[in-house]
Amino acid sequence: MVKSSMRRMLAGNGLFYPIIGFASFIAFLYLSFGDLWVNYSKEINLSFVERNGTQFFVDGKAFYINGWNSYWLMDHAADYSTRPRIRTMLQAGAKMGLTVCRTWAFNDGGYNALQISPGKFDEKVFRALDHVIAEARRNGIRLILSLVNNLQAYGGKTQYVKWAWEEGVALSSSNDSFFYDPSIRRYFKSYVKTVLTRRNIYTGVEYRDDPTIFAWELINEPRCMTDPSGDTLQDWIEEMSTFVKSIDRKHLLTVGLEGFYGPKSPKRTTANPEIWAADLGSDFVRNSILSTVDFASVHVYPDHWFHHKNFEEMLKFAAKWMLSHIEDGDRELKKPVLFTEFGLSNDNDDFEPAQRDKFLKMVLDVIYKSAKRNRSGAGSFFWQFLVEKMERFNDEYGIVPWESPSTYRLITEQSCRLARVQGLLSTQIEHVKNFCAPRKN
């Protein structure tokens, strides 16, 4: 009744339709740009992570990492219906005492592409990446941002070669021409510069000035099999790492290697999983020793690399693999080593859920022992964590950690163990103090 009277009154004065029009305009603004009013004021003060020798440091204290992969954050932030998953995942990571998440800062061509074509970007998707970074900062989580994929997923080097071919400037249709074609190198440098100098619409901070970003990763799992000598990939790493550092000297940089030893390495036959691993065009020590590379990265997938070993044999290899690379970090590289992906597939013929926990515990134990001894094994990142209702985005490695109490316990225990070695970060105090038991004498 009151609403009816008000409507007659406004209509009589000629105000009703203008007010309705204004309200509709405000609704349109909110639906289009509503995320601009999201409160990001609850920011946690973060410092840049630094490196001194074989260790990372934050605010003068050694920093060993209990981290995880959620490659999908930007992609899901681009859609308002799935955007809440980003906050859910980052809040959950913080509550488990995790400190760094590795995720993609690329999507080249295709659905929800950040880079639609060379040098052309979708602002909506860039705002999604802005949101991921702002939300990570809000939750005290740092990010490793990977800049391109060696694989075809999310475009990768295949898309860059396709663009060059379509524009009639490609030297070759080979995917590996990504590493040596001058036109494609220019495409990638343009992309890198655009990302590093992007000003976040929510925080007002350029990416290159934002301590929320732990590090840049040049490329996920680089391989250049057309040149097994490794010279082509090495030249690309030298050029691109130097280029990144010319724009951003505040952040750490890594290559994104799997950790295989090349044909000239003395470990090619003693530490590699099999003979093929030396012929992929990469070399762990050679690629990582450059002065423009701040730390080394390694992946751990024994069940993907072997097809005729049982679980216990693969577990033994994985432990040896990790220790070999930590030894390299201590003796050869004099740099930290991060195990930026590790996982166990549930598609293995003999898979049992308890195996995944046993594998996880082995990896975390190696990192804990490295931290206790101030060695170069500086952290590990589980591949991969999801939230509920993401089955379509899962591979055989993904888990929702809080749905497995035993796995969740192992993860939080690692956060506590590392906190006892290095002390709690200011970003961890709110959560970790609630589940870390006092140290027993």
From TrEMBL:
Gene3D superfamilies: Glycosidases (3.20.20.80). The chain crosses the membrane at residues 12-33. The gene is MAN2_1. It comes from the Eukaryota. This is mannan endo-1,4-beta-mannosidase. Keywords: Glycosidase, Hydrolase, Membrane, Transmembrane, Transmembrane helix. It holds the Pfam family GH5_mannosidase. Its EC number is 3.2.1.78. Belongs to the glycosyl hydrolase 5 (cellulase A) family. Residues 47-385 form the Glycoside hydrolase family domain. It catalyses: Random hydrolysis of (1->4)-beta-D-mannosidic linkages in mannans, galactomannans and glucomannans.
